[in-house]
Amino acid sequence: MPTSTGLPPLLVDSQEQIEQALRAHMDGLANGGLELYRMMRYGLGWIEQDGTPALFGAPARLHGALCLEAWSALSPAASRQDEDLAAIAAAACELLVASIEIHEQMQIAEQGPLDHPAMWWVWGPAQAINVGDGLHALSRLAALHLAARGLPADRTLAAVTELDDTALRYYEGQYLELRLQERLDVTEAEYLSVAKQKRGALLGGSMALGALLAHAPTPAAHALRSFGQTLGAAAQMQDDIALIWGDPKAGLTPMARVLNKSKLYPVVHALEHGSVKQRRSLGRLYYKRVMELSDVDEIRLILEEAGGRDTAQAAASAIAEQAVTELREVGMDEHRVGRWQAIADAMMGG
Fold it and tell me: Which of 112, 204, 209, 227 has its CA 20 to 30 A from that of 301?
């Protein structure tokens, strides 16, 4: 099971190393007198709105941890300098993800948790755009900083390219997801394609960046990127289940993503495979100009009648297993496959 930090146990030990790299990079570039950087630190989960230390500490750094795990898997005889470079790359991944999260919360009008409201909700959309763009710039600067720390220029350029490609793939997925909001004829194949391009791009890109820092051969890097993309789709399906049926006290609130008509996997499956009555009932709700809070409960009841929860859980588990199978098919060492299997199981709640 994931730990209390929300991380698979195998990834917990790398958290301090990632935090140190993040703080060193931020401290080296941030103008301490400009409130923009205080807002960035809030976005990274380090402080509260008034600038005091965050009550619950920094959030889990999943993507940086996956970057380091990929690097470690392919660097059996790494030096301390190599490890430092990998930590900087992990920090670049986390800065990119923080940038994306700030923009996405604004795009879907998600107010965020009560104990740490969304950036746009606190400082307004205009400043949230500034903070998100600034964090993206810091992410690229972290990757470029690899050259100053000893990484050859050609491999530094490759690292920046990998980071930018990850961002572009994500934004392609975000564009497609927004296009699907007003459609009712979304297929499972379309859903999975978007999930791989969006959530999967961030996981797969983080792993591919770690592989690049490890001097991994191209097939190994491609295998880890593909694993991350497929696992990302499974994790997105798992999150969709939690958003619809999770305990609100745990902070999993479906309201924003349901009310803006995001096509969560159980909804997509019911629209494609449900009975005529179920499809019509969902269509009536999703064709409304503005959905209301009471509609969420009705959607949940329709999905339960369609067996959506069990079907979605089975589909998510099957796709996660497919991700691990892909690693075996490219001949990855069984010990390493076992570690990735454990990480995938934990991310899926197993």
Answer: 112
